[in-house]
């Protein structure tokens, strides 16, 4: 994306953002209201940009036809995703495969594979409304990865997962090949465990981009936090806040 602008009403939320992503896991950190979900919705082509340009898999997203082509390559797990409660887990993921134009002859196999990857194969026939919160989140992850998208957008995917499930989620993400993953989280340990590249978003712009080790290196002697990465993150936010106040 180049010079991307996004907002609501008179309010600008993303202010002229440039971002190029390749294969790997890109972590997006930022406080509440920083614009992470707004950025995800724009990358997922749910909301057209107000300004600037967006290119997905080498094609600029402009016309309705280019949006449709882009969506075939995008797996998106929104922060609050919806589903038909009476659908079975299998039908929910299969429906998402259909929405993404996964070829008909591949859709059943892709659905089964996605359910296996999130360890829900044995619940395939259960109704969505009968699942626990963590299982619903795993079904959502399956709906995002079904059909092996090239761009995977995961907005706070680990919310509601228990510690064992979070570890399984990490190994699932590590097992993905040839995918650009964008992962937003409030848990810096997820970033430390998964990301090669991390950015801190605040007030609609990036105030940091680098490796998790670079971010940890930004910690100052008086920074808050229980780990080097948390202290680095808090230091970056503190510096951004002071700069904005000047
Ligand atoms: N539909 C909307 N209409 C108007 N303003 C909105 C809308 N959605 C989000 N906003 C505003 O845009 C800003 C960015 O919100 P966004 O949800 O993108 O932040 P976020 O970084 O995802 O926050 P969180 O960590 O709480 O999920 C916030 O000030 C929010 O109030």
Automatic annotation (TrEMBL):
Swiss-Prot/TrEMBL keywords: ATP-binding, Nucleotide-binding, Transport
Molecular function terms from GO: ATP binding; ATP hydrolysis activity
Domain of life: Bacteria
InterPro entries assigned: AAA+_ATPase, ABC_transporter-like_ATP-bd, P-loop_NTPase
Pfam family, one: ABC_tran
Domain ABC transporter: 5-228
Family: Belongs to the ABC transporter superfamily.
PANTHER family reported for this sequence: ABC TRANSPORTER, ATP-BINDING PROTEIN
Protein name: ATP-binding cassette domain-containing protein
The organism of origin for this protein: Streptomyces paludis
Lineage start: Bacteria, Bacillati, Actinomycetota, Actinomycetes, Kitasatosporales
């Amino acid at each position: 994306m180049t010079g991307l602008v996004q907002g609501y009403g008179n309010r600008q939320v993303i202010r002229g953002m440039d971002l190029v992503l390749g294969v790997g896991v890109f972590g997006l950190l930022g406080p509440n209201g920083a614009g992470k979900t707004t950025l995800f919705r724009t990358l997922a082509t749910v909301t057209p940009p107000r300004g600037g340009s967006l290119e997905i898999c080498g094609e600029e997203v402009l016309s309705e036809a280019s949006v449709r082509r882009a969506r075939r390559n995008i797996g998106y797990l929104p922060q609050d995703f919806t589903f038909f409660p009476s659908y079975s887990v299998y039908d929910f993921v299969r429906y998402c495969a259909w929405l993404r134009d996964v070829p008909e002859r591949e859709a059943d196999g892709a659905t089964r594979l996605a359910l296996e990857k999130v360890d829900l194969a044995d619940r395939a026939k259960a109704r969505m409304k009968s699942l626990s919160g963590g299982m619903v989140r795993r079904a959502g992850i399956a709906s995002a990865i079904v059909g092996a998208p090239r761009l995977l957008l995961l907005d706070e995917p680990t919310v509601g997962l228990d510690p064992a499930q979070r570890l399984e989620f990490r190994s699932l993400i590590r097992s993905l090949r040839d995918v650009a993953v964008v992962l937003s989280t409030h848990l810096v340990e997820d970033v430390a465990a998964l990301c090669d590249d991390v950015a801190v978003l605040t007030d609609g712009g990036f105030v940091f981009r680098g490796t998790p080790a670079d971010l940890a290196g930004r910690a100052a002697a008086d920074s808050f936090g229980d780990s080097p990465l948390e202290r680095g993150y808090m230091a970056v936010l503190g510096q951004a806040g002071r700069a904005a106040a000047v």
